[in-house]
Amino acid sequence: MRIATFGDVLLDVVVLLAEPLAPGGDVRAANRAGAGGQAANVAAWAAELGVESRCIAKHGDDGAGELVSRELRGLGVELVGPTAAGATGVVVSIVGDGDRALASDRGVAPSFAPEELDAAWVECDVLHLSGYALLQEPIATTALLAARLARERGARISVDVAAWTEIRSYGPVQFRALLDELAPDVLFATEAEWELLGGAYLTAPLGVLKRGARGCSVFSEDAKLDFAAVPGEVVDPTGAGDALAAGFLLGGSLEEAARRGLDAAARCVATVGSMP
Fold first, then answer.
1. Which residues pair with 140 in a beta bridge?
2. Labelling 102: which of 35, 83, 88, 238 has CA 20 to 30 A away?
3. Which domains does the chain have, with CATH numbers?
4. Which one has a higher pLDDT value, 187 or 223?
């Protein structure tokens, strides 16, 4: 089985606060920098779980791009896509009191143009699209093209809808129209994203509602199934939803897929950072 992901590969800087931020002051924290971005995270966890994994993304020709490329290769991910003169994106995740806030600079990633896409890259069993790739041009047009080419080759399409704040800025109605055009086989969303988009009206054969510490719910045409989270210590929630998505996309029954995803999410939150 091969899972391909499409979206951003970024330098992920995690700031794990030991105490609240103090404006104008200095506080203690444990910091980590490495590869990240929604598409890269899902690809890395898919590789960790034992399947062939490819990440399709545009990154810069700077030191950050070299670092994230090297780390992904070391994790067993095939990184493909154009390299551009410019900056690789950086996302800063500030973690405190069991929650996290993100500050993102996507760098050259949104400039991924349709003519830069190689059809061979979407030869896969599942193509997983990061919702962030649908929010700007020209990468949004490229994402739609990638999905069409992958589906023509027999792949299933999944989408993680991206942060609710980004969807609110873009426009929920317009974003739902994009989802209708993509017609994904599997749709992942957090509770805030689901509510903003009117989850009851989203059309996908499978919807996976990520509920954080309360596990997940899986909506199919026939039923809704609820699954509890795997108990364990939570050090850093960054990337947990991406780990869940990777595990779920490996397939099997809905119960097997959800449990595999929740196991991966539990492993992810037990350490600092979004990668395995």
1. none
2. 83
3. 2-8+36-87+108-269 (3.40.1190.20)
4. 187
